[in-house]
Amino acid sequence: MLAIYLMAFKTHADKSKFENLYTQYERLLFSVAFGILCDYHLAEDAVNDAFIKIIENIDRIDEIDSPQTKRFVVIVIKNVCFDMLRKKKRHSERLIDIDEPQWESDDIGIAQGVQEEFFQRFEMQRMKCAFQALRPDYQIVLYYHAVLGESINRVAEMLGTKPETAKKRIYRARQSLRKILEEDNAQ
């Protein structure tokens, strides 16, 4: 894919600059996109779109390994992802034309139940995305311990480690999950 991007440049200096930028930030862009979109293929598309936008603005980048450049590429990928979500929302709104419901007093309790179910599902989707953003070894220990309810000793046995190691890994996995969810709330 990098070779296709490099065809957009005329000078060797710009090609080299973009190649360094690509290798440095490709994974970061993908993880940000996946965190927002929660879909592997959409995240790949978003990264491709972001790199096209970065190519269009390559002259704004002076130094590859700088906080300003990192901030710039993260802003670009976030904007691309949010644009994708808006387009997806607009498309689904056009497909489903729903009139505003007229609620009768008996229906209010049902509507509140539907609303609660919606928020529970939304929260589960958010947790699923956060869980998928974890490192694989953290996913495994959380799955064994939190989802399957295995004891720390049993988790250690399944992983072939000491109980203290499993306990530390579970703690770090929870901390990472908490951090991902907090970052998601900040957005």
Descriptive account of the structure:
- The chain is mostly helical.
- It is built from eight helices and no strands.
- The chain has helices spanning 2-6, 12-37, 40-56, 67-95, 107-133, 136-147, 152-159, 163-186.
- Helix 2 packs antiparallel against helix 3 (40-56) and helix 3 (40-56) packs across helix 4.
- The two termini are 30 Å apart.
How does the SSE layout of this entry go?
Blueprint (H helix, E strand, L loop, with lengths): L1 H5 L5 H26 L2 H17 L10 H29 L11 H27 L2 H12 L4 H8 L3 H24 L1
Short synopsis of the structure:
This protein is an all-alpha fold and 187 residues long. It has helices spanning 2-6, 12-37, 40-56, 67-95, 107-133, 136-147, 152-159, 163-186.
Q: What are the key terms here?
A:
single chain; 187 residues; mainly alpha; 0% strand; globular
User: What Rg, in angstroms, do the CA atoms define?
Assistant: 22 Å
The SSE order reads: HHHHHHHH
Q: Sheet bearing the most strands, described?
A: none
- Separate helix tally: 8
The beta-strand count equals 0
In round numbers, the mean pLDDT is 78
Strand content: under 5%
How does the helix and strand content classify structurally? mainly alpha
